[in-house]
Amino acid sequence: MTLPVEPTKPFAPIAEAIADVEGVDPEVAAGEGSVPEAFVQALAEERDEVKPRELVIICYSGDLEKTWASLILASTAAASGVPTKMFLTFWGLQTFVKDEKRITGRNWMQRMLSFMQRPGISHRKLSKMNFLGMGPWMMGRLAKQYGVAKPKELLEAAQALGVELMPCQMTMDMFGLTRDDMIDGMGEPVGAATVVELLSNGAAPLFI
Amino acid sequence: MAVLDIATTVDARGLSCPMPIVKTAQAVKPLPSGALVEVLATDPGSTKDFVAWCRQTGNELVEQSVDGAVYRFVIRRK
Question: What is the ipTM of this complex?
Fold first, then answer.
């Protein structure tokens, strides 16, 4: 069975866009005749202006293995010309505290938490098989042996390539972290709504 | 083979993913359009990665060869 085919007319906004292009026959804009060269060229120019899709990595975990993976992807994406942002929240934000900061926070609970789980990119623990630091130590040795860049080097590369670091305001408040506690080159603290807007505008999301 | 006018060489020998790509991106950035960059790498994954990276960034992979365990790529900046 064949279905009847309706003669197609350009969708209204497209017809308007065609009519906007200089030198377009009104008949063409109305869906008659052939598409003029000027329109094809205008479309091609518009296509070339299209920005590559953004990447937003939501860094939620502070575990060594997940931090490592996030930074490998972030630095590679930025190196590939993909605008890349990292939203740093909960334990993921602890990674971006300066390495030399030992105790952070304003009240005893915040201070106690930073004491129990040392912040900073060079003090990440494995989520499994940490064995009082034996696991991360062996990972470090293996990384060196096989020429794998450590998280700190990857972070430096990512920042040099323009990866935007967006700390979570709520997490900063809850852990009592100040701007001075955080590494240099951090962006303004933001909230979930900023991330939701980026994602709804088509950014590729990764939750790590 | 014609001698190419290489603007800069990235020595990524001994480095693992993603550093060959990251270092190349950093080396390419300040160069003018059309400049040639030579990359030396030992990471076997780089053969696929440089093809993908060039497709993604619009830079041109002019040459790709292997000499023993060393991979050589010549890339023309977009």
Answer: 0.86
Radius of gyration of chain B (CA): 11
Average pLDDT over residues A166-185: 96
Provide, as residue numbers in chain B, all residues whose Cβ is less than 8 Å from the Cβ of A153: 19
- The beta-carbon neighbor of B26 closest among A72, A148, A161 is A161
pLDDT for position A107: 95
B18/A78 CB distance under 8 A: no
Domain count across chain B = 1
Q: How many angstroms separate the CA of residue B2 from the nearest CA in chain A?
A: 29
Instruction: Report the pLDDT value the prediction gives residue A11, as an integer from 0 to 100.
Output: 55
Determine, yes or no, domain membership for B1.
no
Domains parsed from chain A with CATH numbers = 13-49 (no CATH), 55-207 (3.40.1260.10)
Provide, rounded to the nearest whole percent, the portion of chain B with pLDDT above 90: 94
Q: The sheet that has B70-76: what strands, in order across it?
A: B6-12, B36-41, B70-76, B60-67
B35 touches chain A (CB under 8 A): no
Cβ(B57)–Cβ(B21) below 8 Å: no
